[in-house]
Specification:
about 600 residues, Glutamine Phosphoribosylpyrophosphate, subunit 1, domain 1, Rossmann fold, 25 strands
Length: about 600
């Protein structure tokens, strides 16, 4: 969840500061830089955002070797003492760390003479390096690497070498080389700004990075072969005015076109020799917004497919006994491609003989290296922590994939598939119509900003949209929110209805509209405020009008007013919509 960066080359402090700004979406509790100069290591760190760190390093002497860190707290409070980097007790090593050292308490007990200055698991690594150093920094790193258990990407500088070392297991780490220097980073999107050639470090790897080359070893010092490739260039994080979240919502029409065109140009579903007729089950696996897109895609697929299509939260898939065999196909959904639970789930499916397909916004990511097949959603870079346009593009691409499977199995006709493509091509205009009237959502937000709780309800294919709308609201406004199938209200939740509560009812399916209308009457009669998001008007409710679309495509559009509602509610409450408290964009630890 944290962001790490290291480099050897000119203007190392300035470039590291720039990189940390690009990585701030991964964590923004605190930040720091360690710079090696003239036989010693200077450390600058502070609580708060990168802007606070920039003031501290302002005027600092430049150097050609530095490592940096932006933190999302896992161990210890948010304070300067717990900020990275950490120095070893003898000042010889400095480290930054992304991930969790699971056995750090046991390791600390082996260092009884060390006075720890923080509450973190990470500091333990620095002191272990000092203890194991015998004049050879690489050997010390290898020895410590073998002691560690957990998920970690660690960057290390040593006073006595012209090298940056790294230790990697189950947390993302990318190495880059260019004419101007050598780099390592937790994000391919960030490193592509500095390096043309990059390599993804495998698990259980130690990296030895010098100014011109990178060597990769296993934890026992045996050298590994690792391929470098040309990194994609990503959109720069330029947002001089306004919030990234709103900007990204307004990009949805364009990105839906990009996703559709990109899918067509990639020739659609590609499973090699695997035949879809042998399928017994399909899993749609993800976390948070990615899971919700799978939940919605499964609801659509059930209208076509004659086999089990099962959405599963990645962390639950890991520790439950979901059946997997060679007739299983899993779509692993992750905007970043680095979501730890989702990557581990992909590994689990492959270990048991299933087929894996990454659905991601980042082609050069851990998930794409684990999965056999990859489809890009073409949403473009997302910088707001709360995902918006990626959800719409994920859902569109999943709809296309599942339609291709249905067509290949003979349960979706060629004519219906062609109609579906035409309907998807028309969605950008439908979304634009909602965006053109976004001021009405700002007025609705005023109605719910002071509510004690907001409940989102919907039936069948509208329920997943309710889940995503609820998630968006709680993420950035901090209002308590839950989503329910509308028919479940009478089974407990109706007891919570009162004038301080709001209910958002999503209704896009004409055959179920009367059922949803009954639910609206039930909550309104108990004093709750009701907002109806639907192509039709509801009595006793404030209406948010939707265009009429097919059941298979309506969810891609009906979520947009909910994204805007969350945004305007949070803004009205004065929240930081791009960087909500306690959250990070890329969840790289279980």
């Amino acid at each position: 969840m944290c962001g790490i960066f290291g480099m050897i080359g000119k203007n190392a402090v300035g470039n590291t500061l720039t990189a940390l700004k690009l990585l701030e979406y991964r964590g923004y509790d605190s930040a720091g830089i360690a710079a090696k100069r003239n036989g010693h290591i200077d450390v600058y760190k502070t609580e708060g955002r990168i802007a606070a760190l920039a003031k501290i390093v302002q005027g600092a002497e430049e150097t050609d070797m530095a490592i940096g860190h932006t933190r999302w707290a896992t161990h210890g409070a948010v304070c300067t003492q717990n900020a990275h980097p950490f120095l070893s007790r003898d000042g010889r090593f400095a480290i930054v760390h992304n991930g969790i050292i699971e056995n750090y308490k046991q390791l600390k007990q082996t260092l009884p003479s060390v006075d720890f200055g923080s509450q973190t698991d990470s500091e333990t690594v620095a002191h272990l390096l000092a203890r194991e150093y015998r004049g050879d920094a690489l050997q010390a790193v290898l020895t410590v690497a073998r002691l560690l258990k957990g998920s970690f990407a660690i960057a290390i500088v040593c006073v006595e070498t012209r090298t940056i070392y790294a230790v990697k297991n189950k947390s993302p780490l990318v190495v880059g080389l260019s004419e101007s220097g050598a780099y390592l980073c937790s994000d391919v999107r960030c490193i592509s700004r500095f390096a043309q050639r990059v390599a993804v470090a495998p698990d259980n790897t130690v990296v030895e990075l010098s100014a011109r080359e990178a060597k990769f070893y296993d934890f026992f010092g045996k050298e590994k072969e690792t391929d470098f490739f040309t990194a994609d260039r990503f959109d720069e994080a330029e947002n001089a005015e306004g919030d990234f979240m709103l900007k990204e919502i307004f990009e949805i029409p364009e990105k839906l076109l990009c996703a559709l065109d990109g899918y067509k140009q990639s020739d659609g579903l590609q499973l090699g020799r695997f035949t879809v007729n042998a399928l017994k089950r399909i899993y749609l696996i993800g976390c948070g917004t990615a899971y919700n897109s799978g939940l919605q895609a499964a609801a659509v697929a059930r209208k076509w497919l004659d086999l089990d299509v099962l959405p599963v939260i990645a962390s639950e898939f890991l520790y439950d006994n979901y059946p997997v065999d060679d007739n299983t196909l899993a779509f692993l959904i992750s905007q970043s491609g680095e979501t730890a639970d989702t990557v581990r789930a992909a590994e689990r499916v492959r270990e048991r003989g299933g087929k894996t397909y990454a659905v991601t916004n980042t082609r050069s990511s851990s998930l794409t290296f684990v999965c056999e097949h990859t489809v890009n959603i073409f949403a473009g870079s997302e910088y707001a922590v709360a995902s918006t346009k990626a959800y719409n593009c994920q859902l569109e691409v999943l709809t296309l994939l599942l339609a291709d499977i249905a067509f290949a199995r003979g349960v979706l006709s060629q004519s219906r598939r062609s109609e579906l493509l035409d309907e998807l091509a028309a969605l950008p205009d439908a979304v634009q119509g909602i965006l053109d009237d976004c001021s009405s959502l700002a007025r609705v937000a005023e109605q719910i900003k002071n509510c004690s709780a907001v409940f989102y309800i919907g039936r069948t294919a509208d329920y997943p949209i309710a889940c995503e709308g609820s998630l968006k609201l709680k993420e950035i406004s901090y209002i308590h929110s839950e989503a329910y199938p509308a028919g479940e209200l009478k089974h407990g939740t109706l007891a919570l209805m009162e004038p301080t509560v709001a209910v958002v009812a999503i209704s896009t399916q004409s055959e179920l509209a009367d059922k949803t209308a009954s639910s609206v009457i039930e909550v309104a009669s108990r004093g709750a405020k009701v907002i109806a998001v639907s192509p039709r008007l509801f009595d006793n409710a404030l209406s948010v009008k939707l265009p009429r679309l097919s059941p298979e495509t309506s969810g891609i559009v009906s979520v947009v007013p909910l994204q805007l509602l969350a945004y305007y509610t949070a803004k009205s409450l004065g929240r930081d919509v791009d960087k909500p408290r306690h959250l990070a964009k890329s969840v790289t630890v279980e």
